[in-house]
Amino acid sequence: MTKILTGGVGKTEVAGIVSKLGIDGIEIAVSNDMDAAMKLRGGQADFYLGTCHTGAGASLGVLVGLLGKPLCHTFGRSVPTEDEVTALLAEGKKVFGFAIDQIDAVAPVMARAIAARG
Amino acid sequence: MNTLAASTNHLDFTLAQQLTVIVLAALTAFISHMALAVFNDGTRPFMLDFIQGRSSRSATAAVSFGLSAGFIFGLGAPMALSSGVLNPWLLFLPTDILGILAFRKWLAPLLGGAWGALIVFGLGGTNNLAHKLPVDFLTAMQQMSTPILFLFTLFPVLAITKQFGRARGGIAAVIELAFVIMTMKLWPNVFAGSLAMAAGVLMLIGFAVRKDLLQRKADRAAFAAEGTTDTGPQEADPDDPMVSLFSASAARLRRYLPLFMLLGAGVCALAQMHIFGGGEATSFLIAKGQYSEAAQVDFYRVFGFIPLIATTALASGAYGIAGFTLVYPIGYLMPNPILAAVVGAVVFALEVLALSYIGKLLGKLPSVRDSSEHLRSAITETLSLAILFGSLLAANVMGGGLAILIVGGLYLINEAMGRPVVRMAAAPAAVIVGGILLNVLYWLDLFTPVKG
Fold first, then answer.
1. ipTM surpasses cut 0.90
2. How far is residue A40 from each of residues A67, A68, B259, B415, measured CA to CA in Å?
3. Distances in Å between the alpha carbon of B136 and those of A81, B251, B286?
4. What angle do CA B385, B323, B67 make, to 5 degrees?
5. Which residues pair with B144 in a beta bridge?
6. pLDDT by residue (tens digit) across A10-43?
7. Neighbours of B376 (CB within 10 A)
8. Residues of chain B contacting A76 with CB distance shorter than 8 Å
9. A105 touching B, CB under 8 A?
10. Is B174 buried (19+), middle (13-18) or exposed (0-12) by CB count in 10 A?
């Protein structure tokens, strides 16, 4: 079971949208930046999806500081394709930030790409 | 010169105001060059790698541009054009980028100052021109202030509902409505939402603090029952990576205290001059001369931003250009720029000195951090509706049904295209485009302006 945590302004929306997709093999839970950073460090969670107005500030702030930039990626306000996400996952990115006004579009793409990776 | 319009709209900047903007833009660019503070909360996390030399100046500037461009052109510019009042997105996001981009120390203030000059002269001129058009869409924009003020009053209720459920949200709604009606009856000169907003924010903070304290008590009881000495990850521990990262950043920022005090003085003085609005809603209130209302709106907005700004500053070692944004409401209310500068400097000093303590406190109060996220999301929701509705009111005033069709239509098209313009600014931007279009139609004899 791949464990995904959400944080930032739209954390409940992201968790809600992903849960509704009903994808097997992934579990998504609402968290916050500080707890998520500690859980990712400790291996208690696998991925983090953060949201805010820029797609990077509130969503990634503490995580970039604690986990380092190589593990983090922000889409800003853009919407990635599943292939782009798959490529980033292959690079080892674990923490993703995107903008609150693009949650509807980005959250399902993220969830599908993470699930496909197994 | 139309003195009547000038009394309600700040069209022309005085020399002192122009100089303040230019000097402040130079200062903010310099501070961003030094990686001491950036305005964009999204850029801040990336400053740590830059400070520690793991990423280059140009790469960091590219990140800053990527995260800010949409907000400069999609939010800052339309808001400034439509209100005639400067805002932090138009002023400080470009100086973030220019400051980081400048490859020499002296170049940063030069580029920043040039940007400041460009916007005071550009905006003043464009604004004057727009007011002289047959269809004066800028005056129509003042329709924004009523929906903004009244809907913004409700934001604590939305945050409480999202965080603490329907029952408490419902209670908060009833209490706020009662306060609004009471204020209207008893103190007709006070903005109706003042007490209601205060009550709502206090309720939210109260619920959150209570929840955190109960949780800590429960945790301690659980640990005591297990007989372990572990007090959980929240306690201050020098080996805790979060604690060591946070204290290193706080120490770095304290070293530059005088520079931060200068910055606080500048931002507070700018707010005092009433040519600048700090929040999405505030520009329209400042433009209408409703300074105490603007101060209230920005003061309550602060609660949604303190945890975000504190944690990103402590995680990255770079502070916010406007700090906790407390200097905005304080500035609006100050009697003169000199006092504003002094108070702004003191406020910034206190903020920087308290950062470390605030970070530790926030670590122990996860529900309070949650509340701030819910507050920000509630602010976005109330203002999105208010600004959309206000824009349609403005459209109605400037051109009736045809204008409503153009403005509403442009908003919907922006949505359908995946929001190239930030949602919050899409409707005001549509009013500007609609206004220009109506003027063109007027010249073509295809449209008769609605006279108010």
1. no
2. 8, 12, 36, 35
3. 43, 52, 19
4. 60
5. none
6. 888 899 999 998 888 889 998 888 888 888 888 8
7. 25
8. 42, 66-67, 70
9. yes
10. exposed
